[in-house]
Amino acid sequence: MSALVDEQKLEAAPHDAECKPPRIKPHTTSEITPWLRTPKTIWCPGCSNGTITRALIDAVLGLQLDPEKVVVVAGIGCSGRIAQYLEYSTVHTAHGRALAVATGVKTADPSLHVIVAMGDGDCSAIGGNHFIHAARRNIDVTALVFNNSIYGMTGGQMSPTTHMGDKSTTSVRGNVEAAFDLSELAHAAGATYVARGTAWAYRQLVDVIAGGISHTGFSFVETMAVCPVYYGRFNLTSDPAEFLKSQKEHAVPVGKFEDESRLRERYPVGVLHHSERAEFVASLQAMGDKALEAAHG
Amino acid sequence: MTAAPVLLQGNEAVAEGAIAAGARFFAGYPITPSTEIAETLARRLPEVGGKFIQMEDEIASIAAVCGASLAGTKSLTATSGPGFSLMQEMIGFASMAQIPCVIVDVMRGGPSTGLPTEPSQGDVMQARWGTHGEHSVIALVPSSVLECYTLTIEAFNLSEQYRTPVIILSDALVGHMREAVVLPEPGELRVAERGTPDCEPEDYDTVMSDLDNILPRPPLGSPFRVHVTGLVYNRRSGAPDTEAPEIASDLGRYLREKIYHHRDAIVRVEEMEMADAEVAIFAYGSVARSARAVVKWARAQGAKVGLVRPITLWPFPTAAVEHMAAQVHTVIVPEMNIKQMSWEVQAAVGGRAKVVDYGRVDGKLITPAEIKELVKREFYYHDWRDS
Questions:
Q1: For chain A, what percentages of helix, strand and coil (3-state, to nearest 5) are there?
Q2: pTM of whole model > 0.90?
Q3: DSSP states along A210-240
Q4: What is the average per-residue pLDDT within B235-256?
Q5: Are residues B146 and B215 in the same domain?
Q6: What is the pLDDT of residue A198?
Q7: B59 contacts in chain A (CB < 8 Å)
């Protein structure tokens, strides 16, 4: 269900071969590492951010994008640090503002492949307004959200994706708020490609990221990240391997997903929504070309 | 032959000045009394191959401006008090990441929603100190429609040269006023282009800007593959480094000094009848218009009154004020706020002259009649024929 007024017909593609993302053959470590600026990260042992970073590089390599034209714009938080590790043009913006900065980047230079890395709080709390409007505009950027259901960088506070009852340092007796389903929020706001992957299923993660990058329009890729140090320790397990295994049980391929009321224990993965409608920068450009012609004959 | 005068509004003049300066991207959000800048650019930018976006709020507007500038396009936004408050976060980012951009603040009465349609000069300190942390900024204050045009071009030139956000402090009076102006011919005013660093991309991490050679920022999506960050970073490599105090100190001092070191080149002040003045009026923006009339009135009656009008408000024109303080016995500072710049004047005067402040925060203009009364008090022995 989209929250957009149906001015442009939304042509939803069914969950069939048509909306299957490209299949990317994973690259070797020696192929991946040239795209990292440093071997050191600030991420905790057991964090899945490194896996997601690798998946992003794998997707960019697999799609054979011109690396010079790849721009990664990131927000603030654990996920935001990806910007300083990647050997592309990168921008580490302010908390919540990555999509708004990316809107300026893509509009000013449509030839760029703009990938926006955000955390769950970054994207949907402080950056929630920019998120829904980027989706509404259908601007051709790929939003990659690292959803670990907690604010990790500040030491484990609840976020808009912390489930009801979950514990955090700011919900010590259990969270009394409902959690966002970010993918459904993106879809309702008008995103034309919405996919979910997990740190557990690496190949699928690479594929859905590649699908997002190759889609024209606003693509939203929700990666279910594991944070054993905060979310896990408070709620599930502080063992990274156990945490990853739990994702295997929680993630259900989208075609087989039925029980929508139990998002905490089960969530659909794969390409959840896929449709085509006018892309923002292209529409702006087409309107501008007409104005330019009218002004100069 | 000069061009025919055109009747132009201050806000429209800002928009035309931006186009003349080569700006090809605007992102903004509607707010009184700045909206005409967005409206004019929504119409005009596509005609010159530029792009206009209306964003979801002012935070997004300045963020998009930062992004477009990083992608290599000269960019601006325009707002007023409440929006200017929201923009402070990303003005700090632009300052830290050294992103050239222009922010136009058409000042209205505040705080909060305040007096949306009335002029004010209440944001002059916010322009300097609104964002957190040590930084410096350039702020220009137009007092006429023509200056709305010329100072917008200058703002872009300064922002490119010093790789910094530049703020134009207009107000509801200057922004909404219409005057007949003769705009400079294309080519008459200097327009600074953004260059590319004079080095190979692989050497970029090893060359460093210094105060006298500020390297241009290479665009995103170029072989330079820059990393842009709001964290403290090593000025040579661009890599974030929050562990080394000397790196933080070097950056913090550089961000301030790259403006202050060039203060003499940046700061512009207009003086009127100051050669033999005994009393000076220090006035900026729309208030300077009333002050100018008062100087003419006083001089016609033999009273030695002069005007010092800062065109650049930040960095503060300290040298001009020190020079003035050595000459006059009294400085009158009329402004549409309470003592914001008069404190700064007092600091630079350093007790060498009396500083008389006069403020209004009711959204009403400071008239020549009010300034005349202030002048008369400083010439109690003078025989005024004409009031």
A1: 40, 20, 40
A2: yes
A3: HHHHHSSS-EEEEEE---IIIIIHHHS-S-H
A4: 94
A5: no
A6: 98
A7: 97, 100
Q: How far apart are the first and last CA of chain B?
A: 41
Contacts of B139 (CB under 8 A, 6+ apart): B124, B127, B128, B166, B167, B168, B169, B312, B313, B314
Residues in chain A predicted with pLDDT less than 50, given as ranges, are 16-17
Same domain, B66 and B160: yes
Contact B131, B159 (CB under 8 A): no
In the prediction, which pLDDT does B182 show? Answer: 97
Q: What's the pLDDT band for B41 if we cut at 50, 70, 90?
A: very high
Specify whether B27 is located in the same domain as B134.
yes
Average pLDDT of the segment spanning B138-162: 98
Q: Which residues contact B154 (CB under 8 A, 6 or more apart)?
A: B140
Which uninterrupted H or E stretch holds A129? helix A128-137
- The per-residue pLDDT for B212 is 84
Same domain, residue pair B177 and B213: no
B155 and B16 within one domain = yes
Domain count, chain A: 1
Determine whether B185 is exposed, middle or buried from the number of CB atoms within 10 Å of its CB (0-12, 13-18, 19+). exposed
How many Å apart are CA A22 and CA A14, to the nearest integer? 16
Whether A7 is in a domain gets the answer no
Looking at chain B, the whole-number percentage of residues with pLDDT higher than 90 is: 90
Cβ-based contacts of B70 with chain A (< 8 Å)? 91, 101, 104-105
A-chain residues near B224 (CB < 8 A): 89
* Same-domain check for residues B217 and B340: no
- Residue of A289, A261, A26 lying closest to A164 (CA atoms): A261
Query: Which positions 68-127 of B are in contact with A (Cβ < 8 Å)?
Result: 68-73, 75, 89-90, 93
- Same domain? For B251 and B340 the reply is no
Q: Any idea which residue has 């900065």 for tokens?
A: A101
Give pLDDT tens digits for A212-232: 999 999 999 999 999 999 999
Judge whether A127 and A145 are in contact, CB under 8 Å: no
State the best of B26, B51, B62 to mutate against chain A, taking most chain A CBs within 10 Å: B51
Instruction: Dig out the tokens for A276 from the structure.
Output: 């085509």
The candidate with the shortest Cα–Cα distance to B295, out of B310, B308, B284, B312, is B308
Q: What percent of chain B has pLDDT over 70?
A: 99
Domain range enclosing A179: 21-296
Which A residues, 204 through 263, put their C-beta within 8 Å of a C-beta on chain B?
A: none
